[in-house]
Design brief:
Strand content: 15-25%
Radius of gyration: 29 Å
Largest sheet: 7 strands, mixed
Low-confidence stretches: 546-558, 677-682
Structural class: alpha/beta
Helix content: 25-40%
Shape: globular
Number of helices: 24
Distance between the termini: 58 Å
Mean pLDDT: 86
Length: 815
């Protein structure tokens, strides 16, 4: 008898979420362990949903339904076709995404099925967007296309799975597909369905696989692109042999590795008991024998010059590491950080600091980190909580250089069956992190498997950062030709190179501008020569400097650019311009529209803000602004955020490494007054006469309490004399889709309650869901907020708590 599997729902973290369960009153969780066709991938621990009237047929999984929904969102307003709808679960998700949908299925001949599908679509509010066609594909598909002259931009094939039906369906939809079209397949676990995807691949369509319960696939052509999907990191994914040649969305070969220790459970538990009792020089150290042997091995081989330990405990491990450094004669230093700073110990190579692993930016500034001797070794050994580990990983991701290590301790708690105590623990965090940054890190098996398969408490968690630059051969050729520096700057140069290349490939109009020293203009000119579809120039803008030495340096730079440009045959692209008050207007007019603005001002506040003031309005909405020194210089960050205040907006700032950042005008969040508010929900910040900041924890387990608290606040505001004076600024950093859903539920509940009580509601507050601000931007926003509305369960972004504590609390009057 097959052992029952513990099953759960999963939706890719990159997706906008929607919940249509209430539209399908007969939907239940099915028993995947006993029923369904033989091809069902029962070993995938996701929930199967069925209609209780026919429980032998399953719907697409919740993750698969969200692939449909999010794809439809990208093609909103376009014509779409679905072959095979069963009882409308997939249909409702497609239609909810905003496409105009034709549905073909012979099951619709049954009046019971037709009525059930129609009822569900009505409950979902999408019936008017759907045309239901009882009939068989491919004949019915061709009939609809000829009668309506339809060309579909999105097609979902989920009909008859037996050969040759999927191939026949694919051939007919290709004939009537729009030039820009995307075709989705379901049940690719079957070779017969894969015949359809193979057909389009052979015909020149781009293709990709989604690792879901039954495996979905996508083929596309023209000016469309499939949605990015992240497979469930808690599943050991495999792929059938007939799909072996396809690339997989969000796939990292790490997902196929064994994530369990090879230690027998009784041996593991015995060693754990000893580890908890282990001490060094009388100080509790809680280290196991495997890692006690592995750390000296790694330190001798890597020879780090700085070690940062997150989680000091009693200080024993830092003391032990300090002695190892001394015995090896290494001139290195250790910084050990804990919420409870160790004060009872001292060592010449150890500094104990007070700090929180979830708020490392409060103690480890970019300026401090940039000046640490390298290589850097990071050891995360804090509270084992998923939230702490993922914060540490994300923080150091932007500061680690290629070849440096970050070690995550105690991922083995999952093997001990204790991960539920830590919300999935370190192992969950490591898997999600590696999935998010494919090809950026490798699990160094020489340490993990030194004594046997994951004979370590750091299961698959000796992580080494890779050199991303080495993975782009075109970039390597450019670096060699231009003699660009390697290692320390390769990451930053690569991001600039890839940004410029993407702009050229997408044919975004505008010239390239380097504001400051001309060290990257030759690289930009190289990209234009090899990738641009239109004529472009690289303008190198210098600010006039009365200092003679600076003028001489500028002259030498001009001569160097001219010489290098001539040598590489890109000299005509590079135009140096020295800006002055007399020529500023004419020079900016000559530059014209800007596709890429690269600001290299060496942290100078005046030059950085001048670059933004002079050129921001000329940058295309799809263009990009990249700033070197944002992470390194406080003056540079201040210039960026002061300019935000000038134009009343917040930029969505993407961190490149410990020095650089980029943003694009099209993603900014303008600050509006409440009377200017757009319809809810908004991707901007609206302020009112009474602005309230809310920081809910969107964890589903707190959903009921969060909705209740929001209902109380919304009812108070709607019954106030002037509801439109209020503005709610709501943090949605962790789960925008869940935040939107919960807010809409609370608003609908309150509206229904008040209208049923006879209230006439004409005005409402503005509500802004905010998800892309960094701590500095939150501080500046909170300075403009009147109150903080406290909740029982809150999630405060890192580094924001001190500024929030200065905001008065908003208390509702007692009832």
């Amino acid at each position: 008898m097959t052992e029952s599997i513990a099953r759960h729902d999963y939706v890719s973290t990159s997706f906008q979420k929607i919940y249509l369960d209430h539209c399908f009153p007969n939907m239940r969780v099915g028993n995947a362990d006993q029923r369904f066709p033989s091809y069902l991938r029962r070993h995938i621990p996701h929930l199967c949903y069925v209609d209780c009237r026919n429980p032998s047929v399953n719907f697409v999984s919740r993750d698969e339904a969200h692939i449909l929904y999010n794809t439809a969102l990208e093609l909103k307003g376009k014509s779409a076709l679905e072959i095979g709808c069963w009882l409308g679960w997939s249909t409702a998700h497609l239609a909810a995404g905003g496409v105009v949908l034709d549905v073909v299925d012979p099951a619709l001949f049954d009046p019971v099925v037709y009525e059930s599908v129609e009822q569900s679509l009505c409950l979902a509010g999408v019936r008017s967007n759907v045309n239901l066609h009882p009939g068989y594909s491919p004949k019915k598909v061709e009939e609809i296309a000829l009668q309506t002259n339809r060309r579909w931009s999105l097609i979902f094939i989920d009909g008859n799975c037996e050969s040759p039906a999927p191939l026949q369906d694919t051939r007919v939809v290709e004939r009537y597909a729009a030039e820009d079209c995307l075709v989705l397949f379901h049940n690719l676990v079957l070779p017969s369905v894969a015949e359809g995807l193979n057909y389009l691949k052979d015909r020149g369509w781009k293709t990709m696989i989604y690792q879901t319960m039954q495996i979905m696939g996508v083929a596309w052509r023209g000016n469309v692109r499939p949605v990015d999907h992240m497979p469930d990191p808690n599943v050991h994914w495999t792929l059938p042999e007939h799909l072996g040649d396809y690339c997989i969305s969000g796939f990292d070969p790490v997902m196929l590795q064994d994530w369990k220790t090879g230690l027998p459970k009784d041996v593991m538990n015995s060693i754990q008991r000893g580890s908890l009792a282990y001490s060094y020089k009388g100080i509790p150290t809680t280290k196991n024998p495997f890692d006690i042997a592995l750390y000296p091995l790694l330190i001798w081989q890597v020879k780090p010059r700085t070690i940062i330990e997150i989680g000091s405990y009693c200080g024993g491990s830092a003391l032990w590491l300090g002695d190892i450094l001394s015995s090896f004669g290494l001139g290195a230093h250790i910084y050990s950080i804990d919420v409870n700073r160790v004060t009872s110990l001292s060592h010449p190579k150890v500094t104990y600091l007070r700090g929180n692993g979830r708020e490392l930016e409060a103690i480890l500034s970019p300026f401090f980190l940039s000046r640490l001797p390298r290589p850097l070794l990071v050891i995360e050994d804090a509270d084992h909580q998923y939230e702490t580990t993922i914060k540490v990983l994300e923080f150091f991701h932007q500061h680690l250089l290629p070849g440096e290590y970050i070690i995550i301790e105690d991922a083995i708690v999952s093997d001990m069956g204790e991960d539920i105590l830590y919300n999935g623990g370190p192992k969950r965090a490591v898997r999600e992190f590696l999935s998010k940054y494919p090809d950026r890190y490798e699990i160094d098996r020489s340490y993990c498997d030194f004594f046997g398969s994951n004979f370590t408490w750091c299961v698959n968690s000796y992580l080494k950062k890779k050199n991303k630059a080495n993975q782009d051969l075109d970039f390597q050729v450019a670096c060699e030709a231009l003699r660009l520096p390697t290692l320390s700057k390769s990451e930053y140069f690569l991001e600039l190179y890839l940004s410029a290349k993407k702009i050229c490939q997408e044919d975004i109009p505008g010239n390239f501008v380097e504001y400051g020293k001309g060290g990257s203009s030759a690289l930009l000119a190289w990209v234009i020569r090899h990738h641009s579809h239109r004529p472009r120039k690289v303008y190198v803008l210098f600010e006039e400097n009365l200092d003679k030495e600076a003028d001489k340096a500028s002259t030498r730079t001009d001569e160097s650019l001219q010489h290098l440009g001539e040598k590489l045959e890109v000299g005509e692209c590079i135009i140096p311009v020295t800006l002055s008050e007399s020529n500023l207007a004419a020079s900016l007019k000559e530059v014209g529209e800007v596709a890429l603005l690269y600001i290299h001002a060496n942290g100078d506040y005046k030059s950085t803000i001048n670059a933004l003031r002079n050129l921001y309005s000329q940058v295309s909405s799809k263009g990009l602004i990249q700033i070197e020194g944002y992470g390194l210089w406080e003056s540079c960050r201040q210039a960026v955020h002061d300019f935000e205040q000038e134009i009343q907006s917040f930029f969505h700032i993407h961190i490149i490494d410990h020095t650089g950042a980029w943003f694009t005008p099209g993603e900014n969040n303008p600050i509006l007054l409440s009377q200017e508010k757009p319809s809810f929900p908004v991707s901007r910040v609206c302020l009112g006469k009474v602005s309230l900041a809310l920081f809910p924890d969107w964890d589903p387990s707190f959903q009921e309490a969060t909705i209740s608290s929001l209902e109380l606040l919304l009812e108070f505001i709607l019954l106030s004399p002037i509801p439109q004076d209020y503005a709610l600024i709501v943090s949605a950093e962790l789960d925008y889709g869940m935040a939107e859903s919960i807010l809409e539920t609370a608003a609908a509940n309150v509206t229904l309650k008040l209208t049923d009580s006879g209230y006439e509601l004409k005005e409402e507050p503005s509500i802004s869901l905010v998800k892309t601000l960094n701590s500095e931007q939150w501080k500046r926003l909170l300075a403009q907020v009147n109150y903080h509305y406290p909740l029982a369960h809150e999630q405060i972004p890192a580094g924001v708590r001190p500024a929030l504590d200065r905001v008065p609390r908003f208390e509702l009057p007692s009832r």
